[in-house]
Design goal:
Chain lengths: 159, 539
């Protein structure tokens, strides 16, 4: 999708699954395309295994950092049991991506599911692949780069 | 932080820290509290001198000393931390400062991680200090520099009010703005009349404060840090903070007056703005403070409906306010509740308290989750340190059999923040049945993201510090029995210690000590990075 208008993405899951990391990588990748980017997250209690969601918005000009209810173009949910909780974020025409949309068996480390889902999302967005790679390297610890770049590839290339 | 030439993607917290580091702030101090915590951590990463104080009052006192000495100070806390520091703040408004002092309060509308959603804008009015409110990371960066200038120009502490969506939203910052020039070498000049607030000096100081606020108000009419958006004359909106962003999105055609310096108000400019539109709505997050002030000044504005004072505003909420709807959009379905981590040592404590049917006045921290299933064994949570005083009050009046079941629980960081005076009260005014205090010592400030504190032996910047020992404090103030147990390694000893304390009828304190599992992995990660740095440094 061309970023001629604001693209709204919500990443949801439970604390500890990498929701924040996932949305950071997305925001970093979009940032590298030169457009306006805003990202909203909530810390604290929500990190103790509770439901957590992050909003990433990018386009020519973004005002509110929060995706208005029912206006997410893409909703990434990192665990199936959070789909019902998070669904109200999704626009009627929006796309829902869940763990079922990537080949989980192919992942070397299940903790890379968040990055694999980003790989799947990357097929829908007009962000050059090099920016995604740079974003993964910018956000994650060095020892996690290679395994996550491979996870990204699995999501991006998967059926 | 991501750097792309002069274009950065920063959280509001990082933006404040970056500006402070470029403004030659000599010292950053504060106490961790969501959503403010990352300001000082980032300030330290950017090369600033940052340190955690035991609590917000001490932090503001230290910052006051820095500013009395002509240097620049940054003091950070969450909104409820300002209550702890308020005793300093109100008289600091009288004394004023010589260098600069910026007090950052991070409010939590919607209470993502707080016990109340108090609106810090009340404090600007109550104490009589100017307040700046950024609406994104760019303004968080710019306003930090402007707050330092304002503080030096008017010799006053300045409140910088952030909210969760400013602190924890990442937006683009182009760091082109001008920075105040470096201050001179710190020096202290004796001036009793300005800094010794005995009545004879405080009476004129109160008058000086009001005169100063009048001068700031006159200056605020220039509206330098406010923003006017020219739009339709059918609708005008007066707003501040993140609400401005929601307004621009929800009502793109509206005329907007956005306050940057939100106290003291530019009343004449706002009156002119309101007079130029058919309908003028005030859309601010939190209490209906702004509309109250403007109505009192005789300016015809429409406050947002009362139902919108609860929780956060949003684009959808602003659309409804503009449309004249009396209430917000329905809240989405509640999600999964948070819980104590699997393997968390606090679990052993709550299991034992639940099994014994204890009454448990509790405190602020991860362990507040002990109030929820499957434990349901923490009975009260009011404020930092309240567990001990509340427990004593209950022991004083409950029938003896019930009083004996009262156990106060408090975390290590919270204990050092404001639990010590509670212990002194217990020794001075002991209940007939004595009391039992459990310090749930997981060796970190876990709730806010694993910050160090005076008991961990490490400072904010990672350097080693002398360790304050909780058990030695309890012994020193005169507790009868002080025990240290590891509830995981020796669960039987922990349970025996609790039973002995409950039966003893004395003043007993048990330090239930076991490192937080998240802190343990964080330390391992830090050690790995240190080792890698050493390898690369040696290569």
């Amino acid at each position: 999708m061309k970023a001629s208008r604001v693209v709204n993405v919500v990443v949801a899951g439970v604390g500890g699954q990498g929701v924040l990391t996932c949305s950071d990588i997305l925001a970093e990748a979009a940032f590298r395309t030169g457009v306006d980017v805003k990202k909203a997250e909530v810390h604290g209690m929500s990190q103790r295994g509770g439901s957590v969601a992050c909003d990433v918005r990018f386009g020519p000009k973004v005002y509110s950092p929060m995706v208005p209810q029912g206006q997410a173009d893409y909703l990434l949910v990192l665990s199936e049991d959070q789909v019902d909780v998070a669904r109200c974020a999704l626009a009627e025409t929006g796309m829902l991506l869940t763990p079922a949309d990537v080949d989980g068996e192919a992942l070397e480390n299940k903790r890379s599911l968040n990055v694999a889902l980003l790989g799947r999302l990357s097929r829908e967005l007009d962000i050059p692949e090099a920016h995604w790679h740079e974003a993964i390297r910018a956000v994650l610890e060095a020892r996690l780069h290679e395994v996550n770049l491979r996870a990204f590839r699995i999501g991006r290339d998967g059926a | 932080m991501t750097v792309m030439e002069d274009r950065l993607l920063l959280s509001g917290n990082e933006a404040v820290a970056l500006a402070a580091s470029r403004c030659h702030v000599a010292l950053g101090t504060g106490y961790p509290g969501t959503p403010s915590t990352e300001i000082l951590e980032s300030f330290s990463r950017y090369g600033g001198r940052a340190q955690w104080a035991p609590n917000e009052k001490v932090a503001l006192e230290v910052a006051t000393g820095v500013a009395f000495s002509g240097a620049r100070a940054l003091c950070t806390m969450k909104h409820v931390g300002v209550n702890v520091a308020a005793d300093v703040l109100f008289t600091l408004a009288y004394t004023g400062v010589d260098g600069a002092l910026v007090l950052v309060s991070a409010d939590d509308p919607g209470m993502a991680s707080s016990q109340n959603e108090q609106d810090t804008r009340h404090y600007a009015r109550a104490a009589g200090v100017p307040m700046l409110e950024p609406s994104d990371s760019q303004e968080a960066y710019d306003f930090t520099a402007r707050a330092i200038e304002l503080s030096e120009r008017f010799q006053t502490v300045v409140l910088l009010r952030l909210t969760t969506r400013i602190c924890h939203s990442r937006t683009i910052v182009t760091s082109a703005g001008s920075m105040p020039p470096a201050p001179g070498v710190p020096r202290f000049e004796r001036d009793f009349a300005r800094r010794v607030m005995i009545p004879v000096f405080a009476r004129p100081a109160h008058r000086r404060l009001r005169e100063k606020l009048d001068r700031i108000a006159a200056w605020s009419e220039r509206g330098e840090w406010n923003r006017r958006v020219e739009g339709t004359s059918a609708l005008g909106v007066i707003t501040s903070g993140v609400a401005y962003q929601h307004v621009r999105e929800a009502a793109p055609d509206a005329s907007v007056y956005k306050l940057g310096l939100s106290y003291p108000l530019p009343v004449r400019a706002l009156a002119a703005f309101a007079a130029g539109v058919d309908r003028c709505v005030v859309i601010d997050e939190g209490e209906n403070l702004l509309a109250g002030d403007l109505l009192a000044a005789g300016i015809a504005v429409e406050p947002k409906p009362p139902a919108f004072r609860f929780g956060e505003l949003s684009v959808g909420g602003v659309r409804r306010i503009v449309a004249g709807e009396p209430s917000p959009e329905p809240a989405p379905a509640p999600g999964t509740r948070p819980q104590l981590c699997p393997g968390c040592p606090h679990r052993k404590v709550f299991e034992a308290l639940r099994d014994r049917g204890c009454h448990v006045p509790g405190d602020i921290g991860c362990y507040s989750l002990g109030a929820l299933e499957p434990f349901e064994s923490m009975d009260t949570l009011v404020c930092m340190g309240a567990s001990i005083g509340v427990g004593l009050g209950m022991r004083h009046v409950l029938p003896e059999a019930e009083a004996r079941k009262v156990v106060s629980i408090i975390g290590d960081s919270t204990f050092l923040h404001s639990g010590i005076t509670g212990l002194i009260e217990a020794v001075y005014n002991p209940p007939p049945t004595g009391h039992v205090v459990l310090v749930l010592d997981n060796r970190t400030t876990a709730m806010t993201g694993l910050q160090d504190h005076p008991g961990t032996g490490q400072r904010l910047d990672g350097s080693e510090a002398r360790q304050v020992r909780i058990e030695e404090i309890a012994t020193a103030v005169g507790f009868d029995e002080v025990t240290v147990v590891d509830p995981v390694r020796d669960e039987a000893a922990w349970q025996a210690a609790l039973d002995a304390a409950l039966a003893g009828g004395k003043l007993s304190l048990i330090v239930v000590r076991r490192q937080c599992i998240l802190a343990a992995s964080k330390r391992a990660r830090a050690a790995r990075e240190l080792a890698r740095g050493a390898r690369e440094g040696g290569a």
